[in-house]
Amino acid sequence: METSSTKPKLLGASITSTSEGIDRISYLPDEILHNVLSSLYIFDVVQLSILSKRWNYICRAMPYLHFDIIRFGNERVAIFRWIRVITKRNVQELVLSFRLAEPFELPYCVATCESLRVLKLQLSGDMLKLPNHLGFCQLQLLHLLEVELSNEHLMSCLFSTCPLLEKLILGDCTFGTMTVLDIASTSLVYVYIVNYANNGLSYSNCNVKISCPNLKVLKYGAPMAKDIIIENLFPIEVVHVFFFDVRNPLKEIGMLTYKMIKNVPSTSALKLCMVSVRGVYRMAHEVRNSPVMFYKLKSLKLTVGIDEACMQAMILLLKHSPNLEVLNLFSDENFGWDENWKLHDPSESIVCLKSHLKMIQLTGFKYEENEMELLRFFLKNARVLEKLIIVWADFADISKKASEVVLEYPKTSSHTVVTFLDVNPKPKRFYRHNII
After folding, report:
1. What's the rounded Cα separation, in Å, for the pair 149 and 155?
2. In whole angstroms, what is the distance from residue 390 CA to residue 170 CA?
3. Looking at residue 23, what DSSP letter applies?
């Protein structure tokens, strides 16, 4: 029991008590106290442990330990001693962040830790070296951030020898001299490769191979690799493709995009960046005799320019997705199209527009004529449309003008709800059966 005169300050506030001198914070549940203390450095936690038997117990039972190598000075050995200790005490989640300006060798005690379920490692661009023996028998999540991957054989072993690994995130990682990044695992269900910070030099010299028969989510948001090989993705549900810092010819981009989506025909959600959409358009004539049919695709998200290239690619994808229910278009830039080009040949049937497409969202619209033409197209042809959302890029007063476009086409489903969003946080909604 402690009085107010002996209570330390915790997180900037004194430990409160009642008039009887009861320490109310000390009587909080262990989980809450552990959550609060997890934001403190280990030295601060140790200091709190001397307050009382209760606080000693709380600190000794901490499931989270927060170290700061700067406060250790150059005594890096002290950090690795702590790491060795916690790996022997059934640690389940380990987050390591180093800025060494030299290669970092993963401690053997970590690489063979049988209790570890989550490993997050940030190296600020330094090279990662792995020991020859790996023993992550319980690892479920591996997150590598700003890591230079060095040994392709050991990296392949890292992914394939973790029997319970479900989630892999490679954030702002580079491949160094590696010629292939081989991600092969029977347990992985989620793979995310993202790199918006670094240039594509290390990617252009490396092949990315993904062979995961139980994978459900694949997200690639990085520079184009030399080649991206996808195999055995039978149950895939979500595929995102975003090529960043692209300097390749459109035909090359189109070939790679087509090859990727050709190997994931069972996906239910597909998202493509504008350069990959333009690549699909560039390849459209060459693959016309061997189209990819997405019979299970329910949601399609495209970043586009409202121009002939992107719109023809969009039409092509709509034709090959007969059961599509949701279409989301983000207008990035507009170039217009030739006045002699038509958005769609009425003689060609688009099955999803007639029977399945229920929701369309058009984001970044600027009230340009080619955008209005696209809006008219959807209002005229989407026969079972239930919700149309238009998010304007700029001015709020545009939506009143746009509502006149809706009035011109009473053939849309009588239950369609049209919503206009702009800088005003309150959306303007028009119910189709009220305006015709």
Report:
1. 8
2. 34
3. B
Q: Which of 392, 293, 394, 406 is nearest to 352 (CA)?
A: 293
Neighbouring C-alpha atoms within 13 Å toward the C-beta of 237: 6
> 50 by DSSP, 3-state: which?
coil
Assigned token pair, 167: 């989630």
- Rg (the chain; Cα; Å): 28
Cα–Cα distance for residue pair 337/308, rounded to 1 Å:
5
pLDDT digits (tens, 9 = 90+) for 388-416: 888 877 654 555 555 665 556 555 555 67
pTM of the model: 0.81
Residue pair 353/318 in contact by the 8 Å Cβ criterion: yes
Amino acid sitting at position 77:
V
Question: Distances from the Cα of 434 to the Cαs of 86, 275, 407, 415, 430, in angstroms?
Answer: 66, 40, 10, 9, 7
Burial 11-22 (b: 16+ CB within 10 A, else e): eeeebebeeeee
Do 389 and 362 touch, CB atoms closer than 8 A? yes
Question: How big is the CA angle at 43 (ends 37 and 45), to the nearest 5 degrees?
Answer: 30
Three-state secondary-structure class, residue 242: strand
Q: What is the pLDDT of residues 310-349, one digit of tens each?
A: 999 999 999 999 999 999 999 877 666 666 667 777 778 8
Q: Is 74 helix (H, G, I), strand (E, B) or coil?
A: coil
CB atoms within 10 A of CB 201: 12
CA distance 54 to 25: 11
Answer whether 301's CB lies under 8 Å from 265's CB.
Answer: no
83 token code pair: 């790491």
Q: How many Å apart are CA 353 and CA 378, to the nearest integer?
A: 8
- What is the DSSP-derived secondary structure letter of residue 411? T
